[in-house]
Every structure is written in structure tokens, then in C-alpha cells.
Amino acid sequence: MIPSAFDYRRASSVEEALSLLQSTEDAKFVAGGHSLLPLMKMRFASPGMLIDIRSIQELQSIRRDGNRVVIGALCTHRHIANDETIVQALPALAEAAGRVGDLQVRNRGTIGGNLAHADPASDLPALALLYGATIHAEGPDGPEDYPVEEFFLGPMTTALRPTQLLRSVSFPVPDRGSEVYEKFAHPASGYAVVGVAAWVATDAGGIIQDIRVALNGVGYCAYRATSVEQALFGREATEELLEKASHLATEEVEVLEDVFASENYRRHVAAVFTRRAIRRALDKATR
Amino acid sequence: MTVRFEQSKPQFTGARVERAEDARLLTGRARYLDDLDFPGTLEVAFVRSTHAAAKLVSVHAEAASRMPGVRMVWTAADIHVTLDSPEFGVNQPVLAKDEVRYVGEPVVAIFADSRYAAEDAADTVEVTYADLPPVLHIREALQAETRRVHAERPNVMYHQEYQTDGFEEAFGNALHHLSATFTLHRQTAVPMETRGCMAAPDGATNRLHVYVSHQSPHGFRADLCKFLGVPEHAVRVIVPEVGGAFGIKAMFYPEYVVVALAALRLRRPVKWIADRSECLLADCHARDGIHDVDVAFDGDGRILALRDHLMGDSGAYPAVPFCGSIGETSLAARMLTGPYKIPHLSFTIDCTYSNKAPLGAYRGVWGPPASFVQEGVVDRVARALHKDPVAVRRINLLQPEDFPYRTASGFVYDPGSYAESLETALELVDYDGFRKRQREDRSRGVYRGIGISVFVEPTAMAASEAGDIPYEAATVRMEPTGTVTAALGLGPSGQGHETTMAQLIADELGVDVRDVVVLHGDTDSAPYGGGTGGSRSGTIGGGAALTAGRKLRDKLLALAAHLLEADVADIELKDGAAHVAGVPAQRLTVQQLATAAYTDVNRLPEGMKPGLEVMARYQPTRPITFSNGTHIAVVDVDVATGQIQTVDYVVANDCGVLINPTIVEGQIHGGVAQGIGEALLEELKYDTEGQLTTVSLSDYLLPTTHDIPNIRIRHLVTPSESKGGFKGMGEGSLIAAPAAVVAAVSDALEPFGVMVSSMPVTPDQVLEWIDADQEKKVDSVDSKVYFEN
After folding, report:
1. Residues B590, B594, B595: CA angle, nearest 5 degrees
2. pLDDT score for B775
3. Which ranges of A2-110 does DSSP label H, i.e. alpha helix?
4. Cα(B364)–Cα(B531) distance, rounded to whole angstroms?
5. What is the pLDDT of residues A92-149, one digit of tens each?
6. What residue spans of B294-342 are helical by DSSP H?
7. Is B115 on the interface with A (CB under 8 A)?
8. A23 — contact with chain B (CB < 8 Å)?
């Protein structure tokens, strides 16, 4: 429960952070520290240097830019959950951010750290997938954008290069439909045993015109449950169809198993929470 | 006999006096073990076994010795002390020698300038293991052909049998029978402050000062001196603020010997504080038992005979000084009939070694398992007969006229409010209204259940995990200014003894409770005592405080009578003064009396010795006094996910005369929280290799405020024969709560035919039970019938 020795530097600008990163082999950025520090205390991670980017002002804002919302990497979960722009434009993101971990984690943890860490049980990756977010990185060769579909590569693995800093994430604002986040929170950590983000748009007759469903906590990284989406697309979500479609939630992935939840149990609750998420999205007043 | 609680006549006893401890605890000024920091202190990191069962092929720690800041490295070759359990013929080397027997067993100790340096060095130690087949399950250990955990001893380390006369006949003649198996998984206490100790040679006295987070300062000193081979006057034990203990800190552990011997060797302070993984790996564990139960009953639900084969997993070594598996099973067996008039009892106990951490004491010890079985039996009888669980309890419960009651195992219960506590709790929870609403809920697909647990708690026992000291001692000294310094040999870890003992003494001496300071936790100032455990401190310690207070009061009265020239029978002592009854003006303050006693000794009556200081011991006349009460839990079960939420909770509690209701309620709140944890969350999981997979609090699930509903409590008061009329109550809430919660789960899932048979109840387990029942419904029409005949 004690980390091995490491150097600590504080960067006050993106440029300084990037140059510190290049100055040594095994440096890691730290912002909220709520993912990295526990790993270091268990000696599962032993970076030689921590570069604290917490005080970089330009990464701390949330702004509306046309039909997108751009969120700085250092925005905390609490900030996102309570930000009026996000509550209005991206309600499921606000809902998910408000249910990350516990109060202390939400006060310290950041969206940039959360996405870059890519813990399979994190809440926000499913929201990034749901909305089709773009991740904006900065590196020695300049800026680079990653569509979210190409960002999460595996557990704790993203497309981000070792020399890059995640600067911000931009979310397109849906022009119709409604979306929610349903979560089975781990009783101790608050991580998602299963987290389901669902966005549904229906016509006046209740026929599903468009649907997206993204899950985290279930597979090695967050994913879109395309089988569920296809099963419901263009149809009316009767209880029977919804029940049937929800069971496709784990079709495309290898389901995780851990001390708390067996593979079978996780598969089962993934279906239950998928059904609940879609049902609630359908019941919610649309835009 | 039973009366509703009212504030009793004395000024402080029975009142909701604010805890003297709280100001420092709530403002962060309390000083715990790790807050003590002496110059030159070395810190310890232990390298612990990563294998459950293995021969130690080699231990290479040379590289660690050369690491910066490292002052000394010890392996089994450097320290030859063993924790001996002569009655079992098993000795545990304080650092594993030749063989490791559980994951987490200390193998190497590294002493360095800081914990950081010690941990870095620990990473360089190379241990080579040759694996042996681990023994991990009780039923496996019971098989003669299973490999022995200790080659020279059989795996069954304790066996006992008992049966009432006429058992077989009573059992055989009964109309109905049912059988059930109850399984309790392994858990541990997880105090907020982890275990630890610091040893510092005292240059001035040439003694060893040992600071330790422990429940029994004198018991700890005795054990340490025994294993170190040093006399007790050469060791001073100091227990600073303790952040929770719950039985695991009544135990003695190998690390303490290593730390103390290293301090003596290096002539420097040496400190070790367990981290959270060490807490989960190497604090003593608890529960891990199986009960194979057979019950005989008549058509009304009257239970006629109860048979239990109790099996307990002791872990790799018998914990010192209290082997938890034996403690849990032997007392569970004797208490198995609980508050019910069950005339016949038969039990067999088997405790076995395994390649898991040693089993010791955890709050409630025998109680949570016994309540689980006892209440589970009653609920099964009710369900088998299609009767309300309350009706079956009313038929079997002890009634006021039954006391004193001799149980089938030979315990004699002193009077209690067993039947009344049930009725009180039913009223508090609105049982009849609940049943009406439950039917409506179920028709809407909401599965809400109610569970009842009527408990009996043997308290203030002569022997407990805190040791075999049947008495407690108190010194009470009135200082020349009239304020009071008292000392007891208790070992509080949050129970508020500084407050409750001061309340009792203040009432005896007629002074303000704030003018009494209560010392404890230092063998240099505290009289020899048994420490805190087994719900003994309030009753036995309180009796000692009263006895000493009374003795000093008598002296004050005699002195006042002499100085006021009145008859001693006419002197009243209250509000800080002694005065002649009916003549308020004729008075002396306690300060005036105290000053006279110390400095104006010529005025003392003939034969009275100077000073105002007494020491008294108190041993209750009865070896045990039994507390009782009823807990009722209400839970919601989400049958789609198996998640369970406790939504309501009531307690009717009878611990005799209350010293401080706020403190009693705090104890109940904590016990209920731990009980909900035990019933629904907490489990130490070993995998098939014997690896503990729950080594952090992200995997070992503790209850949080989200899991605990508002708890409504009503007090009943059936005084005991002990001085003051007190009964212990430290464990009753944890004894009763798990059984109430799991019974509520069973009740919620009654439509599925589910009866909870293992703790904790996990969500996946709930779904399995529901699914199994649905399969049974297809297979067999009589799946809900428990009858064997």
C-alpha cells in the first residue's frame, strides 16, 4: 500500500507538460489521481515521474461550440454533472458523471483522466460512444483528433500515443430523441459492474427511428451493442421485443469475470440493465 | 419484573451524558498508534507468504539487507520464538520456518528507516516455494485421507459431542421433521484503524515500552512476556486511542513478537502498522462454519428436539489466546436453543485445520451463526406448516414465568423480556400492516420481506476472548481539590468507557461527571484487569467502578459526619457537597473534605487513614447474565438482479439497567450495520489455490451508509443481579442482525420457495436460488415440502 519512489513535477501549460513528458522514459500525467494512485499504492504501476497537470487553466472549461460541447480534460465529474450546458445538451453524460465513484472521486476525478485511463468499468467511455464524441490530443507533432470508435483499444489501452496529452473531448449534441444512463454500481468501488447508456428517437407512432446503446463494465472496453440496436431499429419496442433484444447486449463481447460478479451473472444483469435503460429512454420526454 | 425505561434516579447513571471522548475524536485530536512518533523509530515491512501451502525451499534476503535505509533483516533463522498452543500440540513460528501454511503468513521482516525503504527492500526478497496441496474446505479436512496441514497432527483439531437424556426418543416420536444445512462464509472485522504495535526500550527504567492497538492491556502484556521470556515488571504496555477492535484486537499475533524483539536487539523504537491488505490477509478471520441441522416438531410448530453437526474451520493455526473456530462452535452449540423452550438438544462439533488464516474472535463470535441457525429453524418450521413466523415464535418463546430457565445445554437464564421484546418490535414495525401491504406489493411484482430475530446474549462471562478474568478492578482517587481520577483495566475501542465509568463514579461520590477522569490502557496506571471483550466491561467494569466508588463514598460520608458532628446515616452526598439531611446549611464541599483528608489530617476521626484513594475488585455473583431483545428487518429484493436493500429496521433491546442510552444505541447502530454487512456483503474469498482474492476494500465489501436504514430502537429494562443491575450489550446487535436480514430475504422470496441457507447472500446467489426453484417447480410438484417422513 506504499508506492515505489517517483519524481513529481507540476506543469502549468500544455507545452510544459509535453516537454516534461519527453524528458523522461516512464512519466505519467496525473490530474485527479483517483485511478492512478491506487494502482501505484498496490505497486501495479510504478511510473518514475508524475507530471501534475491539475493547474493547467486552459484544460478546465466547458463551452458550447455550435452543435458540439467541448469539455476540457481537467473538468471534474462533479463539474460535468452540474454544468447547465451539459445538463441541457447531454443529459445522459451529466447523469453518468453524477454517478461516478463517490463524492470524493467526483470532486477530484477528471473526464480526461477517466477516458485516457480506459478502465473497462469506468462510466464515461460508454457516454463517449453513445454520443459519438471526438477526443482531441496534443503531442510534439501538433494536435490529433481521435473519433471515439477508434479510441478504446482494450483494457487500460487507448489509441493515445505515449507522447500525447488528452486535451479535450467534444460531444455532438443530438437534435432529437432522448438518452439515459443506467448503472449497476459495484457496492464498494462504485465502478460499473454494468453501465448502459441508451439513446432512442421514435416517431409519433412509437417506431424507433434511431437508437444507440453503449455498455461499459461488461467487456474489456466500452462497446456499442450493435445487435441490440439492429434488433430494435425501425420497430416498435414492445416489452417482448425489448426483452429479447436486451439479451443481445453481450453478443459481441467476451464478458468479464471478477471477484464480485461471475461471467454469467454479469451477462444476466447486462441484459436487465439494457432493457431498463432503453425503457427509461423511451419513457422520457424527447427533445 | 420488566419495566419500560425511564431516566433512573441517580443524576448521571441512565442519562444521555455526552461522551467525554467525542470532542477529541471528532476534531481529529485523538492520538492513535500511528500518531506516536519517536525520534529514530524504525519501521517494519513483512514479506508474507504468497502460497497457501508450500515447503520453503529458499529465502534470499541478502539484497534487501543492502538496500538504502535498511537496518536489519530477519528470517526464521534469526528469530526462534514460536506461538505455542500446548493444548493442540501446534506451534507457530513467528516467521515461517520450513513450511508456509497460509497466504499472508509472515516470512521475512525488514527493519528500515522508513516504511518506504522497508517496502522497497521487501520487493527484492526472493522466496522459492515448493507447493503442497492446500486444504481449503471443512468437509475435505474431515476426510481422513486428506493431507494434514500439520504433518504431526490430525486435521480434526477439536471434537465434542453432547446430547440430552431422552433425545433420540423425543426426536423419533415427533410428528414432523426437517433438515437444513447452514453455511457461513469467512469474514473479518476490518476496524477502521488497522492493527499495529510499536516497541521502544526505555532508557530511564531499562524496561520495554510497548504501544499496541489492543483490547486487553494486561492480557497482551502476559502473552508478550511469556513468548519473550521476560518478567512482567520489565514491560509496560500502553494502548493509545483504538479505532475499533471488535475481537480481532483481543488476539495475539506473530508480528508483535518480531517488533518487540527487534526493539530489544537494536535498542531503538520499532513500529509496525498493518496496511489494509495485511488487515484482510493476516488479522484473524471469523465465521467459516457449516451446520447440518435436523429438527423435530409437532403440528402446532412446537420444536421438540434439535440436532446440529457444527463444523468450524480453524485456519492454519489455533489463534492465540482464543481459537475462534472452537469459540464459535462450542458456544453456538450451547446457545442453539436461544430464547426458545426446546427441551432436547444434540450436537457434534468438529473443528479442522486448513491452509487459510487463523480464525479468532470477531464481535458476536458464536452468536451470528447460532442466531442464523436458530431463527432459520423457526422460519422453516413455520413455512413447512404454512404458519406465520410470529405464531411459531409465540408458541416456542420463553415466557416471564419460565425464569430462571435451564436450557437443554445447561445454561441458566436469568430473567429477561423475551416474549415482550418480540411484541414490542412487532408493534414498532407495524407487523400486521406490513403483511397487508406485502400482499399488494407482491401483486405488483415488488418483493419486500420481513425477518425476525429474537436473540439471547450471554454477557459478562468469566471467560471470553478477552481472557479468563472473571472480575474487574478499579482505583478511584479523589484529589485534594475534590476532583476524581479513576483507573480501570479495560480496553475500550470506542465504547465510551471514559464516560460511562465516570457517570457511575460521579453518582457515587456526588460530584459532576466532568470532574471525573477515567484512565485506562496503561499497565503502569491501570489495575490488573481483563480488558474489553465478551460484552463484559459495562457489567463487570461498571460493577468495579460502583464498588470502588461506594467504598470511597463511605469514607467521605464518615469524614463528613465527623467534621459536621452528625450521624453518618444523616449525611447526604450530592452536588459536590456533603450536608446533614434537612439542614442544608450544615455542609462541607467535597473539596473541603478532600483537603482535610490529605492536608489537615489531624482533623480526621480516630482510626481513619489519610488520603482518599481506594482500589476495589468486583466479581459478579452469577457467572453470566443474559441480555435479550428482538430485531426485525425489512428488505426489498430486486428479483431481476438479485440486489437487496434493507429498507426498515427496528430493535427492542433489553440490557438491564442502562448506564447511558445514547451509548447503548450507538452500540446497536454499529452492530446492525455490521450485521447487514455479514448478511449481505462481507466475504473473504479464497480461490482453489488458497489465494485470498479479497485483499482490498474494493473487493471485500463493507456496508456503507447507503446500506443502512434508519434504525428505530425501544429499550426494555429487566435488571440483572449484578451490581447496578447492568447486563452486557456489546454484541447482541451483531448476534441478532444477520439472522433478521437473511430471514427478511427468505420472506421476500417466499413465492419462489427460497429459504436462505448461506451468508452472505449475494445477488448472483439470489438469482440461482430463484432459478433453481423455478426448475424444481417444473420437475416436482412438492418442491416446497421439507418433511422427511
Report:
1. 120
2. 65
3. 14-23, 36-41, 77-82, 84-89, 91-97, 103-108
4. 16
5. 999 999 999 999 999 999 999 999 999 999 999 999 999 999 999 999 999 999 999 9
6. 324-334
7. yes
8. no
Residues of chain B in contact with residue A273, where contact means CB-CB under 8 angstroms, are: 641
| Average pLDDT over all residues of chain B | 95
Residue B778 has pLDDT above 80, yes or no: no
Give the closest of A1, A2, A268 to B767, CB-based.
Answer: A268
Question: Taking CA atoms, what residue in B is nearest to A260?
Answer: B699
Counting DSSP H helices and E strands in chain A, the numbers are 11, 14
* pLDDT at residue A192 tops 80: yes
Flag whether pLDDT at B49 surpasses 60.
Answer: yes
Region A228-247 average pLDDT: 97
Q: What is the pLDDT of residue B647?
A: 98
Q: What pTM was estimated for this model as a whole?
A: 0.95
What pLDDT is attached to residue B772? 84
Structural domain that includes position B604: 3-25+471-618
| DSSP helix/strand/coil, A118 | coil
The 3-state secondary structure of B457-519 reads: EEECCCCECCECCCCEEEEEEECCCCCEEEEECCCCCCCCHHHHHHHHHHHHHCCCHHHEEEE
Among B267, B282, B297, residue at a domain's last position = B282
pLDDT at site B572:
94
Q: Which of B497, B468, B617, B458 is nearest to B546 (CA)?
A: B617
pLDDT at res. B785: 38
Regarding whether B127 and B254 lie in a shared domain, the answer is: yes
Residue A95: count other Cβ atoms within 10 Å of its Cβ: 20
> Which residue on chain B is closest to A275 by alpha carbon?
B640
Amino acid at B502: A
Q: Are A197 and A96 in contact (CB under 8 A)?
A: yes
> What average pLDDT does the segment B707-711 reach?
97
On whether residue A1 sits in a domain, the answer given is: no
Instruction: Please report whether residue B336 resides in a domain.
Output: no
B113-149 per-position pLDDT tens digit: 999 999 999 999 999 999 999 999 999 999 999 999 9
DSSP characters for B121-139?
A: HHTT-EEEEEE-PPP--HH
Provide the grid cell at B584: 442544608
Contacts of B375 (CB under 8 A, 6+ apart): B338, B451, B452, B453, B454, B739, B740, B743
B429, B551, B506, B500: which is closest to B728 by C-alpha? B500
Q: Is residue A198 within 8 Å of residue A281, measured between CB atoms? A: yes
- CA B424/CA B653 separation, integer angstroms: 9
Q: What is the DSSP letter of B428?
A: H
In chain B, what percentage of residues exceed pLDDT 90? 93
Q: Structural domain of residue A246, as residue ranges?
A: 179-283
pLDDT at B781 over 60: no
CA distance B534 to A42: 36
Inside any domain, residue B535: yes
Looking at the fold, whether B408 and B439 belong to one and the same domain comes out as: yes
Per-residue confidence (pLDDT) for residue B776, from 0 to 100: 60
Here the cell at position B245 is: 477492535
**B686 in contact with chain A, both atoms CB, cutoff 8 A:** no
The total of structural domains in chain B comes to 3
C-alpha cell at B229: 521470556
Last residue of a domain, one of B282, B313, B337: B282
A242 three-class SS: helix
Query: Are the C-beta atoms of residues B123 and A4 closer than 8 Å to each other?
Result: yes
Q: Does B113 touch chain A (CB under 8 A)?
A: no
Q: Is residue A2 part of a domain?
A: no
**Is residue B603 predicted with pLDDT exceeding 50?**
yes
